[in-house]
Amino acid sequence: MLHMVFLTNSWLTSFNQPGLCITVAMLLHYFLLAAFTWMCLESVHFYLALVKVFKVYVPKYILKCCIAGWGIPAIVITLVLIIDKDFYGNGSLSETHPYSNFCWIQDNTVFYISVVAYFFLMFLLNAAMFITVLQIHSVKTRTQKTSRFWKR
């Protein structure tokens, strides 16, 4: 959906409908944040599968993942819309970007908080999970080498 909204964004912007532009920008923002959130959930699943191998039963795991994967971005989008729906709009309507024909976030502060900071948080969580998995893997490798040595 992120790709579909991104590819149709310029075409939909050409209709010069402010409500349509706000909707397209909001959908683009939502699906981008959802992609980041699902990437983070994949790393959590990776951690559970490789580090916490046993005793990992989480009741209604898929439902919880879906609620987090689709719900957290919805909360961010709802907060942006509650604060001011005019944060979304057409860049060509602003004087600083006269030739852009794309519906997106118009305020730099909102962009840095709701996209860049969000991505940075997800990236840190992914990096932490990755480092943890690597440490566990290196410990298992050393243990296997030691046991092979003693078997010989």
Automatic annotation (TrEMBL):
Residues crossing the lipid bilayer are: 20-41, 61-83, 110-134
Which locations, inside or outside the cell, does it occupy? Answer: Membrane
Question: In the UniProt record, does the keyword ATP-binding occur?
Answer: no
Q: Which PANTHER family match?
A: ADHESION G-PROTEIN COUPLED RECEPTOR, ADHESION G-PROTEIN COUPLED RECEPTOR G4
Lipid bilayer topology: Multi-pass membrane protein
Question: Which Gene Ontology MF annotations are present?
Answer: G protein-coupled receptor activity
An example Gene Ontology biological process: cell surface receptor signaling pathway
What is one cellular component GO term in this UniProt entry?
Answer: plasma membrane
Protein name per UniProt: AGRG4 protein
Which keywords, in A-to-Z order, does the entry hold? Membrane, Transmembrane, Transmembrane helix
Species per Swiss-Prot/TrEMBL record: Picathartes gymnocephalus (White-necked rockfowl)
- Per the database record, which ranges form the G-protein coupled receptors family 2 profile domain? 1-152
Q: Pfam families, per this entry?
A: 7tm_2
